[in-house]
Specification:
InterPro entries: TAT_signal. The protein is of the alpha/beta class. The protein folds into two domains: 9-136 and 302-355, D-Maltodextrin-Binding Protein, domain 2, CATH 3.40.190; 140-298 and 375-421, D-Maltodextrin-Binding Protein, domain 2, CATH 3.40.190. The chain has helices spanning 9-25, 42-52, 68-78, 90-98, 115-118, 155-172, 185-199, 201-206, 217-230, 239-243, 248-256, 270-277, 313-322, 329-334, 352-363, 387-399, 404-421; strands at residues 27-28, 31-32, 34-38, 59-63, 84-87, 131-137, 140-143, 176-179, 261-265, 285-288, 300-308, 368-369. Helix 1 crosses helix 3 (68-78) and helix 9 packs across helix 17 (404-421).
């Protein structure tokens, strides 16, 4: 794997080719099409193309894949940066702004996004460099009602349910209580973030700051709670070692198709996998990640932000157009989309799930943004780098029987070292 911040020759050549092809073929009505690089593919790419089809000028959409950062660095080196990019985390927006790659949005566009989220896209100079165009609700458990008629309302109830179902699975080879795609480190950070926001909401925000203390009480309490449930014998299909080989999509399939597990935690985007692989007519149901008190669990959101690259007036114009919630009506009607704009009426959504999630985002007392997406540099996480493999090591420890205190000591030491290396704490 290429180290973060470096660009492989293969990526450079592919990105340069993409830029050249667009310049050659994107001309329409006497001008070049506005080029947009996105992280999306498949079920998300098609409706986004329907969105930009409503723009007043031709738009060419390029799917950059999961590592859009490497793709855009290669395009920058090749001198073929797109006009617009849709970035999956605010840390990239701020990094690109510091490098002078982006155009500030002056004046900042009006947008019905909570101020706490909009502020994440302001650079060191106070100017706005991006706008949120898509949200993800990342505080959901998925299950089949026939397998879990009464979901747990609190964390303690979730732990008790996990113990009871794990004992039954060990006894008669029934389904495990939890599926988890631990091969994808971001799944584990999503667990950590939901627990942390519940046990120490102030500590959650502090960890995104440069002086973050990754060996402090909030982190240790969150890890202790995770160890409580992850260490339960029989919690996962095939055990912890098998879970570390299980990717996110497979974990959803283990619930809705093979039924090897009763429930799986992940964001609203899991419904695409659930719809594709469900067996029979039964619709999967959801419940919020449970907190200490009933009905008061955390609400963590992720999101994708649009930015315009420096020197592209057409890019700035398109980004401003994307702040109009009406632009995304084709995606609202198609389903699978959650707007970051809380002024969008829930009744405007095609599917009942997102109607409910939109109401939750409007009424939640505090909405917190995905913490790992706010961390600096390589600490933000990727395969084999940053917070992702550290959480995988912790998961391996507690599922292998390492005492929680020892596993927590090892993990906080690793987190602090990684934070220092990235300039993001201690």
């Amino acid at each position: 794997m290429t180290a973060p911040g470096r660009v492989s020759r293969r990526t450079l050549l592919a990105a340069a080719a993409a830029g050249t092809a667009t310049i050659a073929t994107g001309c329409s009505d006497g001008g070049r099409a506005v080029q947009v690089a996105v992280v999306w593919s498949g079920g998300e790419l098609v409706p986004f193309r329907a969105v930009v089809a409503g723009y007043g000028a031709p738009v060419h959409v390029v799917s950059a894949g999961n590592d859009i950062d490497a793709f855009l660095r290669a395009r920058q080196l090749a001198g073929t940066s797109p006009d617009v990019a849709i970035l999956p985390r605010p840390g990239l927006v701020l990094e690109y702004a510091r490098r002078g790659w982006l155009s500030p949005l002056n004046p900042a566009p009006g947008h019905g996004v909570p101020g706490s989220l909009a502020g994440l896209l302001r650079g060191d100079d106070g100017q706005r460099y991006g706008v949120w165009v898509k949200a993800a609700h990342k505080s959901l458990f998925w299950h089949l009602p026939s397998m879990l008629p009464q979901p747990p309302a609190t964390w303690d109830e979730l732990v008790l349910l996990t113990r009871r179902l794990a004992a039954r699975a060990r006894r008669d080879d029934g389904p495990a209580p939890l599926a988890i795609g631990a091969a994808d480190g971001w799944v584990l950070t999503d667990w950590f973030e939901n627990v942390l926001a519940d046990v120490a909401p102030d500590g959650y925000d502090a960890l995104a700051e440069p002086a973050a203390d990754w060996q402090g009480r909030p982190v240790r309490e969150a890890l202790d709670r995770l160890a409580e449930i992850w260490s339960i014998d029989g919690a996962f299909p095939g055990g912890g070692r098998r879970a570390l080989l299980t990717q996110y999509e497979e974990s959803v399939i283990q619930v809705v198709h093979t039924r090897r597990a009763v429930t799986v935690f992940e964001g609203d985007f899991a419904d695409g996998v659930a719809r594709s692989f469900r067996r029979g007519p039964e619709e999967p149901a959801t419940f919020r990640f449970p907190g200490v008190r009933p009905g008061d669990g955390p609400l963590i959101v992720g999101g994708d932000a649009a930015v315009a690259f420096a020197g592209s007036r057409a890019g700035v114009d398109l980004v401003r157009w994307l702040t109009d919630a009406a632009a995304f009506r084709p995606w609202l009607r198609a389903g699978g989309y959650l707007s970051p704009d809380v002024t969008v009426e829930p009744d405007g959504y095609a599917d009942p799930l997102r109607q409910r999630l939109a109401r939750e985002m409007r009424t939640a007392g505090t909405v917190r943004f995905d913490l790992s997406d706010r961390l600096p540099g390589p600490f933000t996480g990727s395969d084999g780098v940053g917070i992702w493999p550290i959480m995988q090591d912790f998961f391996a420890d507690v599922t292998d029987g390492v005492p929680a205190a020892e596993a927590i000591r090892r993990t906080t030491k690793q987190l602090a070292a990684a934070a220092r290396d990235a300039g993001g704490g201690r």
